[in-house]
Known about the structure:
9% strand, alpha+beta, Hydrophobic Seed Protein, 11 strands, Beta Polymerase, domain 2, 4 domains
Amino acid sequence: xxxxxxxxxxxxxxxxxxxxxxxxxxxxxxxxxxxxxxxxxxxxxxxxxxxxxxxxxxxxxxxxxxxxxxxxxxxxxxxxxxxxxxxxxxxxxxxxxxxxxxxxxxxxxxxxxxxxxxxxxxxxxxxxxxxxxxxxxxxxxxxxxxxxxxxxxxxxxxxxxxxxxxxxxxxxxxxxxxxxxxxxxxxxxxxxxxxxxxxxxxxxxxxxxxxxxxxxxxxxxxxxxxxxxxxxxxxxxxxxxxxxxxxxxxxxxxxxxxxxxxxxxxxxxxxxxxxxxxxxxxxxxxxxxxxxxxxxxxxxxxxxxxxxxxxxxxxxxxxxxxxxxxxxxxxxxxxxxxxxxxxxxxxxxxxxxxxxxxxxxxxxxxxxxxxxxxxxxxxxxxxxxxxxxxxxxxxxxxxxxxxxxxxxxxxxxxxxxxxxxxxxxxxxxxxxxxxxxxxxxxxxxxxx
Length: 448
């Protein structure tokens, strides 16, 4: 049996062989094939398979599998197996109203979004050799590094508006140029993204910022008129003057910061913070200044990420980064000032915040470590080595000890007392002994 030119993981090959052994067609399809042909490594770890076997048959062939949706997809042994199908009318511009199954892999490929996603490798039932099926010229488009819609691009985009976003993301992710007619149809249908749920857009956003460079997808959105209907908070930065890199506006600065953040290898949340860090500037712009833009940006980031379905923990972290990104440091700071900085921004956040400043510097045309980043990083590391108390958990006593020492009922006063104790030991870590802290708590209780 012939093999494709790229390695096929055991779970995918095993699923194909299981389908073939039961006299069913089985093909590798979709983005996994596209990525493997380009680079040998798919971006998505789950491979897509297509078959003429109906879902109930696939369920029987793969014990423990689950029927994922009404479109014929079964999750089996770490792969997704979908029955060959035709899609019929997309009334909501999101999903087909109905699907019918077919026994033709060519028909199944003809319904797909882009030619580079409409390539299959495998064989039909009873065939002796596996091989390629490529009815839309997807492999030739890959060789030309071209992203082209299957058939009429306007029809493809009117069927499912998410394809507009996917076109920008895929082109950026794998380094393709969008074919002229396909890009023109993206511009013509840009308003259709209003039909999309925020969660679907958010999933594509996560993939966009994973591209190299991540700015590439946003440049495509800007060029095709998709940026404003998708992300008006980002589009508002276009044309806002910035006295930084000559010829660059605020939007150029934000994308430069995003690319710099990616080069520093931060988390996905760090890249989101880089993208959103200056979203408060358009509404605070006055006489070339942007006073309070970090607070406005934190509010905008909160709404942006919540609308796109990001989890509460991730939203809080990005919002904190945006809120604190305008910090300033002086070598004249004492050690207590360094500890207070760490406490104020959050010990869990301080490293990401320093990387955000480095990215912001690069996006401004400055050296990454401008503003004392290196010096502050060294002093933070020193405080960590010394085990400086920075949180309530670091105190030598807890709330129960304070209650016992003071002899009062629990209440809001207890939290205030613990915070005051923490502030005292941040100022002077030598105070962090049970005896000293209990004495302070008793003295402060008498002040009431």
